[in-house]
């Protein structure tokens, strides 16, 4: 399976759960799990080749000019992480299905989860560091959504924001670092960069690049001093914590350090920065974990500590340390994900995670206790579990690493391990051991398999890797270490190395000391509580708040809600820019001869002038302004007809009719007059702005019309090819449905969307609330006429209806060769239907409306796209048209083009959109108590259908 | 003719701009309708003016008007109807929801800014 496909699979899996939000948790989780499993299968299929030492590549050019290519690679390191992400992802999927409550939006959860999974998988499979950065930012965003999933909890929202701020800022730094790195190496592809060790380490820019990249890695992996966001992210649902904050996202930073290890590691800078940060983080976080009462907070600090351990090992820069780091990544993922899940089980069953309110659960929850015991002992680093193996390797490496003093590194690492033992025992002891209490918020008992199945499977791994490391894990460690170090590696892992190794005695000391600390927990806690210490959240808020206040102030000042002011500023700015451009350019006088002015058009112009002025002067009377607006529209359409644009004239005049009808209908529910509330200076100011704008627009088009085209127009091409290429003589229509069919397709989609927006707005108005109440209490302001549906008009409109439809069909059919086409035909048939609404009343017409208008829009777009796609069947590009001539004996020979089918789609969309807009107002009117007889007029006998 | 068309564009633009600077929804809608006319005629006129030369291919025609700007404007007319309809519904919804048709989100009627 291609790597690009594997990387895309989680995103495909993210698609449906969010859409199928009503189909329940099984559908959502099942769908997500299916794609998750497929991706895992894809990785598994590639595994044999990777284990043979091959690096699998899949390369696509995306933006080669920027060096950004969709290049994917799979080597041992990628295999390790992809396995973790997808394997644990599948378990989390299973666990979350049982964990989330009925009231949670499960579809959303799985969409976010799969988005995150896709982003993580993208990071570990990227061969291009710019692509990697894209995925890196996506993990920050999707984890923000996941942490804040319980939107009703303020801690969730704040935690999500803090995580996004810290990891996002780190990501920004990393972008800088990566750009420098790519610049030094001369390529943004890892395959190239990884071969450039000498050049990169010799460069003056090595240290800045290193620091920037490390800031990105440290923020993501919660290394000191950026560790504080992780405990606050624990307000996420537990499946998220187990996935993001134990197994995957926080390991992205480690992954990056491991990925860049061949070119960045091995220098003193690398050693001092990375190893020291890791060491400090490991000890500090382990100490804090000992004093945390919240189970998840304890695990969070434990995670930070273990991440520090791995960072430290990577910092050593030796091959053996890198191998220990890789091995610990596997082990930590298994036991820590299991522990998070069991913490979630305790929370789920006892309704609290507060360790001081727990204890004695081993009798009530024996299965959970068994799972937790194994995983905790592994976390403490006790034999025979996998945590012991990698901890021994760590101590071994630490014991012969020179840092400040020969013994310092070993001693400090042992202290870290000691704290680790202490908090592990506390986690186990204070939750499960001790007497059974009678004051749990909820009496706990073991949950169903759905919750304990996933952690149980992970603890099986903990035991198996611990018992038989060489058969179960060494192959993966070998492959990953080979990829990290760039040299072949062979792990030799076993439980018992005899009594000689120093690491064993360091371990013994750590376990003993840890037990002592655990025993002394009460007095130590009292001491801890008395010691003042900085509170990360307060410091963070203190830094962020001034920025937030600044941007709030700025936004408030710029966006004060005065839309008229924004518009005025916008218009003035556009005019000023235009004037500047005009002033700074050079101009020659116009050379075209003006078209002579004839008497009739001159009268039309005077009419237009009067109507326009009339609207402006009388706009307070809304009805009058509408009538005069109609006059303007008519003159414009007549003008189009005069100036050789028959299609435009037809379109404009029919649009004019429906627009005015729409505005009249809306005016029924709006105030009939605009109050005079603008002061004279303001009117003068607006008048000045309007006048200058009008002068600019008029002057510009005049200057344009008086000059010839600066470049040859492409109109000639269309004129020359309309008949031969498109099979029609109406060039405008051929352009619409053929040459520029793609544009038209986009336009009808926009029109359809606009109509659906109208539909949604109407639904929102009618759903209930103040608007709906106002409509229900609506009293018509003017007395209604006794014969609102005059018989003469009703009869006339119904008689004329079939003729209208016939004209519409005629206009549609001739459109390819003579003025007409789908747009105009749609408008004409729409007018025919609107007439029925107007003459016979909303209720009467709506009762006879069988086909829903949004269905019509849907069919229109569907037909248009199917026609476009049809050309694929003939092996041609999308929207290629074809035509032929048909001769049916009684008729003249006529030509049939696939473009006509496309035009049918246009027709249906326009018809549906226009009528949806108008009928939406009729729905509002019906709600306001507008009644029409559902029957035809009393005078009309028999059944008569409008359609 | 050019002068008439250009001055018509200028007038309609000016009327549109003046009306969209009013403080109630209805004049703003009418103003936007004016601006659509102005813009449509502007684009159309950028293909230069011709009389009696429709872009319908015949054997006897002496020449043709620019079909491209006409095609552009044709769809623009229909789309601008769609947009007008959307803002009409928005203003209707806003008025029914709040009982007020001001477009500025300030509590007091502002006279001058």
Would you mind describing this structure in some detail?
The complex is a heterodimer of chains A (947) and B (113). With 947 residues, chain A is mainly α. Helices cover 72% and strands 2% of the residues of chain A. Chain A is built from 39 helices and 4 strands. In chain A, the strands form 2 sheets. Chain A has a two-stranded antiparallel ribbon with strand order 1-2. In chain A, strand 3 (883-886) and strand 4 (894-897) form a beta hairpin. Chain A is elongated and about 115 Å long. With 113 residues, chain B is mainly α. In chain B, helix 2 packs antiparallel against helix 3. The radius of gyration of chain B is 19 Å and the shape is elongated.
Structure described in brief:
The complex is a heterodimer of chains A (947) and B (113). Chain A has 947 residues and is mostly helical.
Instruction: Output the radius of gyration of chain A.
Output: 37 Å
User: What structural class should be given to the helix and strand makeup of chain B?
Assistant: mainly alpha
Largest sheet of chain B: none
Contiguous low-pLDDT stretches of chain B (5 residues minimum) are: 108-113
Q: Count of helices of chain A?
A: 39
| Overall form of chain B | elongated
Rg of chain B, Cα atoms, Å: 19 Å
Q: What's the arrangement of secondary structure elements?
A:
The complex is a heterodimer of chains A (947) and B (113).
Chain A: H1 3-19, H2 24-51, E1 56-63, E2 68-74, H3 76-99, H4 106-125, H5 129-147, H6 154-185, H7 190-193, H8 197-202, H9 206-220, H10 229-232, H11 238-247, H12 249-264, H13 268-290, H14 295-316, H15 319-350, H16 361-364, H17 366-380, H18 386-399, H19 408-432, H20 449-467, H21 469-472, H22 474-485, H23 502-519, H24 521-530, H25 536-558, H26 563-584, H27 599-617, H28 622-642, H29 646-667, H30 680-705, H31 715-726, H32 731-739, H33 741-766, H34 770-776, H35 791-814, H36 822-840, H37 842-847, H38 853-873, E3 883-886, E4 894-897, H39 898-927
Antiparallel strand pairs in A: 1-2, 3-4
Helix pairs in contact in A: 1-2, 1-4, 2-3, 2-4, 3-4, 3-11, 3-15, 3-20, 3-22, 4-5, 5-6, 6-9, 9-12, 11-15, 12-14, 13-14, 13-19, 14-15, 14-19, 15-17, 15-18, 15-20, 15-22, 17-19, 17-20, 18-19, 18-20, 18-23, 19-23, 26-30, 27-28, 28-29, 29-36, 29-39, 31-32, 32-33, 33-38, 33-39, 35-36, 36-39, ...
Chain B: H1 2-20, H2 25-45, H3 67-98
């Amino acid at each position: 399976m291609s790597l690009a496909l594997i990387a895309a699979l989680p995103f495909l899996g993210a698609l449906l759960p969010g859409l199928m939000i009503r189909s329940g948790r099984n559908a959502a989780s099942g769908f997500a799990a299916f794609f998750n499993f497929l991706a895992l299968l894809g990785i598994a299929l590639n595994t044999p080749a990777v284990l043979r030492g091959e690096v699998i590549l899949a390369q696509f050019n995306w933006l080669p000019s920027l060096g950004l290519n969709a290049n994917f690679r799979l080597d041992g390191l990628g295999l390790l992480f992809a396995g973790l992400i997808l394997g644990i992802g599948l378990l989390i999927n299973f666990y979350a299905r049982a964990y989330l409550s009925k009231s949670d939006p499960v579809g959303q959860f799985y969409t976010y989860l799969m988005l995150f999974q896709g982003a993580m998988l993208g990071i570990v499979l990227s061969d291009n560091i710019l692509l990697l950065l894209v995925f890196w930012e996506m993990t920050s965003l999707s984890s923000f959504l996941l942490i804040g999933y319980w939107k009703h909890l303020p801690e969730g929202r704040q935690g999500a924001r803090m995580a996004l701020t810290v990891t996002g800022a780190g990501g920004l730094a990393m972008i800088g670092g990566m750009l420098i790195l790519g610049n030094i190496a001369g390529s943004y592809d890892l395959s190239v960069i990884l071969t450039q060790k000498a050049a990169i380490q010799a460069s003056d820019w090595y240290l800045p690049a290193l620091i920037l990249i490390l800031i990105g890695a440290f923020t993501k992996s919660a290394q000191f001093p950026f560790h504080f966001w992780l405990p606050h992210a624990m307000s996420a649902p537990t499946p998220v914590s187990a996935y993001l904050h134990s197994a995957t996202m926080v390991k992205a930073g480690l992954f990056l350090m491991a990925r860049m290890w061949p070119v960045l590691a091995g220098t003193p800078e690398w050693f001092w920065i990375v190893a020291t940060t890791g060491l400090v983080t490991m000890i500090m976080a382990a100490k804090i974990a000992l004093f945390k009462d919240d189970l998840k907070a304890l695990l969070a600090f434990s995670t930070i500590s273990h991440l520090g351990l791995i960072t430290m090992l990577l910092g050593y820069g030796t091959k053996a340390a890198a191998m220990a780091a890789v091995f610990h990544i596997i082990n930590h993922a298994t036991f820590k994900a299991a522990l998070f899940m069991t913490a979630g089980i305790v929370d789920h069953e006892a309704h609290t995670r507060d360790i001081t309110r727990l204890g004695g659960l081993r009798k009530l929850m024996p299965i959970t206790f068994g799972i937790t015991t194994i995983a905790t002992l592994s976390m403490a680093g006790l034999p025979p579990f996998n945590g012991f193996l990698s901890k021994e390797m760590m101590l071994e490496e630490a014991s012969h690493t020179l840092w400040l003093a020969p013994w310092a590194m070993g001693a400090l690492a042992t202290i870290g391990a000691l704290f680790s033992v202490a908090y592990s025992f506390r986690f186990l002891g204070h939750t499960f051991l001790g007497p059974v209490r009678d004051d749990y918020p909820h009496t706990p008992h073991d949950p169903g398999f759905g919750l304990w199945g996933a952690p149980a499977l992970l603890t099986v791994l903990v035991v198996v890797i611990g018992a038989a490391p060489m058969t179960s894990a060494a192959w993966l460690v070998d492959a990953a270490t080979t990829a990290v170090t760039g040299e072949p590696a062979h792990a030799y892992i076993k439980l018992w190395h005899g009594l000689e190794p120093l690491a064993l005695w360091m371990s013994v000391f750590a376990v003993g000391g840890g037990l002592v600390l655990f025993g002394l927990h009460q007095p130590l806690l009292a001491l801890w509580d008395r010691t003042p210490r900085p509170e990360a959240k307060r410091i963070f808020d203190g830094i962020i708040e001034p920025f937030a206040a600044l941007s709030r102030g700025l936004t408030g000042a710029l966006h004060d809600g005065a839309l008229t002011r924004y518009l005025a500023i916008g218009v003035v700015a556009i005019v000023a820019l235009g004037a500047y451009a005009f002033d700074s350019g050079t101009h020659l006088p116009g050379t075209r001869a003006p078209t002579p002015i004839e008497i009739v058009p001159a009268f039309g112009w005077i009419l237009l002038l009067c109507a326009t002025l009339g609207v402006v002067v009388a706009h307070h009377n809304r009805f009058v302004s509408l009538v005069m607006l109609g006059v303007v529209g008519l003159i414009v359409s007549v003008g189009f007809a005069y100036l050789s644009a028959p299609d435009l004239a037809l379109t404009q005049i029919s649009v004019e009719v429906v627009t005015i009808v729409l505005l009249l209908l809306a005016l029924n529910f709006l105030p009939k007059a605009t109050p005079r509330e603008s002061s004279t200076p303001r009117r003068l100011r607006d008048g000045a702005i309007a006048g200058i704008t009008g002068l600019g627009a008029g002057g510009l088009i005049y200057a344009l019309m008086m000059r010839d085209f600066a470049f040859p127009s492409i109109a000639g091409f269309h004129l020359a090819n309309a008949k031969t290429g498109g099979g029609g003589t109406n060039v405008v229509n051929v352009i619409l449905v053929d040459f520029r069919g793609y544009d038209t397709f986009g336009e009808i989609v926009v029109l359809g969307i606009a109509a659906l927006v109208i539909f949604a707005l109407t639904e929102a108005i009618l759903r209930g609330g103040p608007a709906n109440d106002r409509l229900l209490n609506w009293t018509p302001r003017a007395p209604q006429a006794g014969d609102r549906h005059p018989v003469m008009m009703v009869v006339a409109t119904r008689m004329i209806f079939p003729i209208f439809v016939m004209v519409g069909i005629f206009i549609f059919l001739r459109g390819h060769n003579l003025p007409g086409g789908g747009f105009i035909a749609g408008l004409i048939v729409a007018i025919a239907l609107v007439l029925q609404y107007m003459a016979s009343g909303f209720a009467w017409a709506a009762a006879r409306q069988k086909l829903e208008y949004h269905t019509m829009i849907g069919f229109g777009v569907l037909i248009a796209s199917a026609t476009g796609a049809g050309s694929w069947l003939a092996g041609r590009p999308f929207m290629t048209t074809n035509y032929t001539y048909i001769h049916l004996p009684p008729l003249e020979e006529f030509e049939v083009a696939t473009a006509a089918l496309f035009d049918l789609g246009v027709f249906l969309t326009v018809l549906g959109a226009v009528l949806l807009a108008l009928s939406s107002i009729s729905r509002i009117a019906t709600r306001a108590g507008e009644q029409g007889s559902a029957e035809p007029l009393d005078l009309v006998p028999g059944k008569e259908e409008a359609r | 003719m050019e002068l008439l068309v250009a001055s018509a564009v200028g007038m309609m633009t000016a009327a549109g701009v003046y009306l969209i600077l009013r403080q109630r929804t209805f004049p703003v809608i009418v103003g936007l309708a004016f601006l659509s006319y102005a813009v449509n005629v502007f684009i159309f006129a950028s293909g230069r003016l011709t009389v009696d030369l429709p872009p319908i291919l015949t054997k006897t025609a002496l020449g043709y008007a620019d079909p491209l700007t006409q095609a552009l404007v044709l769809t623009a007319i229909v789309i601008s109807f769609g947009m007008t309809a959307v803002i009409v519904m928005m203003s209707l919804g806003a008025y029914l929801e709040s009982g007020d048709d001001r477009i500025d989100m300030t509590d007091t009627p502002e006279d001058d800014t």
